[in-house]
Design a protein that fits this description.
The protein contains 11 helices and 12 strands. The chain is α/β, with parallel strands linked by helices. Helix 1 crosses helix 9, helix 1 packs parallel to helix 11 and helix 5 crosses helix 10. The structure holds 1,4-dihydronicotinamide adenine dinucleotide and magnesium ion.
């Protein structure tokens, strides 16, 4: 099978880590029967300065018509609004209907407090439909926002969370050690207060996870979002897959990323029907750009995550194992993890372990 992958380095260290992702894919053992074709695509601040748009139409159309998946590095965004500029990744999520944002947060198994969870965030609705209004009243201004929750979006996000839980179990069985016994999905909500919107999310997610594909195979729990934040910090090992509406998922996934040593370790994927974009969680890191010391692991794990959603579990499992091997060994770590290794040395160590 040949997979065509769009490469969108973006700005700053995106240009240093995305090439590492490409080399990793090219270095996968031939026995997997996977070949790759790459197409270089543009987006980001530099692109905006050159072309007046942050996300050229060509990037979107090539991804749509030609690619199976993509790797997106990071883009720098201005701190104040700039006319004509808008975030390319947000636009891509919309244009390609990438309805799920998936963020695994994992330490090595030998860590003092091992963690292995993934947050599955609904990415199309909730408060982020951005339908806000402000009106004047005798008591001053009042601003309101729509929180939209649909059965369709809640059902498909819960379904993909269930699928991820089952797949994680397979990847563990393929030799990736884990702290978990069996697949578990925790539904996040605040339906004690928001009985209609979060109530619909909760009941729809429960229903979706009771489908024959999951019943008896995936354990389902639920938790109110505020107490989840508490438990996320006190007892993070309790979580396997967390599924959440957009806003809670946004906050939980950044909070969870703080549980591991560095932003340079945390991958993500933006997932739609038959398409996935792997994207490291970090930004363009202007403070370390050009020094060759960016941690490539978030990107390498993002490449593996993308492969998971293209149904290439075996290839993904190999990458995860190689990365875990590098981290367990601890001899070639980048400066963000307290080491002195350059990006290139970390990449070479991981490629060797493949
Ligand atoms: P950042 O994630 O770029 O950096 C935060 C800190 O983490 C910095 O000290 C940086 O050196 C370090 N860091 C991040 N990734 C690393 C890696 N792979 N290896 C080693 N150290 C790493 O966030 P910051 O500084 O808030 O934003 C910088 C720029 O990136 C801004 O223009 C911001 O808008 C943009 N940004 C873009 C994102 C995206 O494209 N998805 C996400 C977050 C920020
Ligand atoms: Mg966020």
């Amino acid at each position: 099978r040949t997979l065509k992958i769009g490469l969108i380095p973006g700005d700053g260290i995106g240009k240093e880590v995305i090439p590492a992702g490409r080399r990793l894919l090219e270095a996968l053992p031939a026995s997997l029967g996977l070949k790759f074709e790459f197409v270089d695509l543009k987006a980001g601040w530099e692109t905006f300065e050159q072309q007046g748009v942050a996300l050229p139409e060509e990037t979107v159309s090539v991804l749509k018509s030609d690619c199976d998946g993509a790797l997106f590095g990071a883009v720098s965004s201005p701190t104040t609004a700039v006319k004509g500029y808008s975030s390319p990744i947000v636009a891509l999520r919309k244009k390609l209907d990438l309805y799920a944002n998936v963020r695994p947060v994992k330490t090595v198994v030998s860590a003092p407090k091992p963690i292995d969870m993934v947050i599955v965030r609904e990415n199309t609705e909730d408060l982020y439909v951005k339908e806000e209004t402000t009106r004047d009243t005798p008591e001053g201004k009042v601003a309101e926002a729509i929180k939209r929750i649909s059965q369709r979006a809640s059902s498909r996000i819960a379904t993909i969370a269930g699928e991820i839980a089952l797949r994680r179990q397979k990847i563990r069985a393929a030799g990736s050690p884990s702290i978990h016994q069996g697949p578990l999905v925790t539904i996040t909500h605040k339906s004690n207060v928001l009985s209609q919107t979060d109530g619909l999310f909760r009941s729809t997610a429960r229903e979706a996870l009771a489908a024959p594909a999951f019943a008896g195979r995936v354990a389902v729990e639920e938790q109110i979002v505020d107490s989840m934040v508490y438990k996320l910090f006190r007892q993070p090992e309790a979580y396997d897959v967390i599924v959440a509406p957009n806003l809670y998922g946004d906050i939980l996934s950044d909070g969870a990323a703080a549980l591991v040593g560095s932003l340079g370790l945390v991958p993500s994927a933006n997932v739609g029907e038959g398409f996935a974009i792997g994207e490291p969680c970090h930004g363009s890191a202007p403070d370390i750009q050009g020094q060759g010391i960016a941690n490539p692991i978030a990107t390498l794990r993002s490449a593996a995550l993308m492969l998971e959603f293209l149904n290439e579990e075996a290839a993904a499992a190999k990458i995860y194992a190689a990365v875990d091997g590098n981290l367990e060994d601890g001899k070639l770590l980048s400066p963000d993890l307290g080491g002195t290794a350059k990006t290139e040395e970390v990449v070479q160590d991981i490629l060797r372990r493949l």
